[in-house]
Amino acid sequence: MISVEHVTRSYGDYIAVNDVTFEVASGHITGFLGPNGAGKSTTMRIMVGLTAPTSGRVTFDGRLYHDLPNPGRHVGVLLDASAQHAGRTGREILTIGVMTMGLPMSRVDEMLATVGLTESESERRLGNYSLGMKQRLGIAHALLGDPEVLILDEPANGLDPAGIRWMRGLLRRYADRGGTVVLSSHLLHEVELIADEMILIGNGRIVASGDRESLIQLSGGAGTIAKADDQNALTAALTAANVAFRIDGLQLHVFARPIEVGRIAVEQQIVMTELRTQQDGLEDLFLTLTAESQRDAADTTHEPQIAGALS
Amino acid sequence: MNTVMNTGDLLEPTHPTNQRTVTMPHVSTALAPPKSLTASPRAVDSAIPMRRLIKVELRKTMNTRAGKWLLATIAGGAAIVMAIMVIVGIVTDEPFGITDFTQVASFFPMALLLPVLGVLSVTGEWGQRTNIATFTLVPRRSRIAAAKLATGAIMALAAAIAALVTGVAAMGVFDLFGGDATWNLPLQSVVSFALLQLIGLLTGFAFGMLILNTPAAIVSFFAYSFLLPTVFFAGASLWDWAESVRPWIDFNFVQEPLGQGLLSDVNWGQFALTSAIWFVAPVAFGVRRLLRAEIK
User: What ipTM was estimated for this complex?
Assistant: First the structure.
């Protein structure tokens, strides 16, 4: 379990990370979400001892990162896939990691296979890698020591859609085996598909956190996008049921959860052609919270109620 | 192609394939810890020994193109310089000893390029940002600094031994082709030569630790190595006080007897003070900063 306790980091007057506290349980994927410069990377660097916190601490099963005798065996880290020697081959970069951790050399080939880098690609110098290949190599490097924890800063950066799906599968399997993942992103949809829990960070503070459902509740409840074979019948049924909605082109924005809309449709025997949760609510929340966190007034209106909803 | 593989397949050794789409099934294999990793649970928590760190650092100096070329240039340069010496000696019929060969190799390329090796061992990590990987795997940064220092010392001594062996070989050729060969190699000369290489590389290391930027550190080292002695010399010829101060601040001046193979002529008091200024102080400052600095 990772425990981040009241971590603050300031640079002179500027507070990059402000009293950040959260825990990540084993088997969970936690997404760290926030705009650029929100403090995600600084928090991650603090977690792995590259940046000293001004106050607070981070422990892994009760131990500080510095006190882990062979940290690579516990915590796999990928902060910047480009931060490797451009003149070394991918294979050589992994070899250095394997040597440092005292692992069998066979681990290099195993991890290359895991991330789908071919033999010939592994013999190429990093300088000739695409960003996606660097990202795969970085994941391989993080997985070398078979760690219980993965800390990944913007791991989907540079991956194509197929690559992002691949990464999602890999991390899901890793978490299902009891691994703990903390990953960051500035893209909501990237994180909400993969993370069990999300931590929204803006201006160095946690502005909201929780699983997807509870965050949607926070954003004022789930909205539904609905389309019916007979749209007039649906609007009539919703009106009769006293459910608010808004017509948006061919579809309806219903201010209710999909299950409620579905029930009404079944009762009136209306054939639905589309019925899904409205994504905008979460996105609005994300944008509002992270943008407003830069303005103190807006921040305080949200924070008390949200703080109560933190899990 | 992209079908679910059965467990029999998963136990097969993994083969990298040419297509990314078929590599997903491998995930399960590799994420299940191999036996070698789980066989000794205690190994997970055994600290990384210093010997291993030194081994890794030695590999890191050699496994880049820059590192390979630098080492090749030092070895090749020394061989060429000695070959020229052999020819010159035979043609001019001058008497040579083994130290004549090693001294000229010491002047070039060793005095020039071993310090660069020392500089790069530190600044390379910052320039290429490998320091992120290095210090996440080994968060006790002073251990990396110690391993790099030890690696530098090993490289310098290895280079000194290689140069001495090459010097003996050059002497053999010189003798064979009728050169006026004086076959003696006093221990004092050997130790002086090795010590000189060691100081050269480690001073480069110190400049690297102090400046943490490859070009700036190399330029500064060359200024220290070639410009500063001239300044000290000029000062010493102009003012008496400068002449009396010089041996206590000019590290190059204090090392001069070593260059001539005269270990016993070194003033060790002056050596201690000047090495404190030019080696100990920058390393101490560099390590202190390294322990506190943010690695980005």
Answer: 0.84
